[in-house]
From TrEMBL:
It comes from Streptomyces orinoci. It comes from the Bacteria. Gene3D superfamilies: RutC-like. InterPro entries: Endoribo_LPSP/chorism_mut-like, RutC-like_sf. This is RidA family protein. SUPFAM superfamilies: YjgF-like (SSF55298). The lineage of its organism: Bacteria, Bacillati, Actinomycetota, Actinomycetes, Kitasatosporales.
Length: 154
């Protein structure tokens, strides 16, 4: 077990299997020293536990928890490409999309679920740039979607 996966276990979490693509794309690809993930939905054992718009059917607190699930799914996608999460040099960027009710403006707080978890797992290597974007709808009526970009060693 890698150090990163041991840290995930210490947090009482488990690195999931890679979520299969919903369309014609790969969960993650490597280009040089970087791995880019596709947008990861908060899938847990093949299903999204809560669906709908944040600020309407889904509370910001629930969405923040789902953003953390997305981050774990993204790490699983990275592992599928590099084999060992200890090869992560640093988290470079996190991009998050929040399916938002028309008057909801708390997208950054929702995405803190992903950012905070990545920081807890990776420590200083988890510090990253980020975008938090409100959107009308996401695939499968997911409340949140997260993609990450990481720098990796050979």
């Amino acid at each position: 077990m890698s150090t990163v996966e041991a840290r995930i276990a210490e947090l009482g979490l488990k690195l999931p299997g890679v979520v299969p693509p919903l369309a014609a794309y790969q969960p993650a690809v490597r280009s040089g020293a970087y791995v880019f993930t596709a947008g990861q939905l908060p899938m847990v054992e093949g299903a999204i536990p809560v669906t709908g718009k944040v600020g309407a059917e889904v509370s910001p607190e629930q969405a923040k928890e789902l953003a953390a699930v997305c981050a774990l799914n993204a790490l699983a996608a990275v592992k599928s490409v590099i084999g060992d999460l200890d090869k992560i040099v640093r988290m470079v960027k996190v991009v998050g999309f929040v399916a938002s009710a028309p008057d909801f403006t708390g997208q950054p707080g929702v995405l803190n679920g992903a950012s905070e978890l990545l920081g807890e797992i990776l420590g200083d290597k988890g510090v990253h740039a980020r975008s938090a974007v409100g959107v009308a709808v996401l695939p499968l009526d997911a409340p949140v979607e997260v993609e990450i970009q990481v720098e990796v060693a050979d």
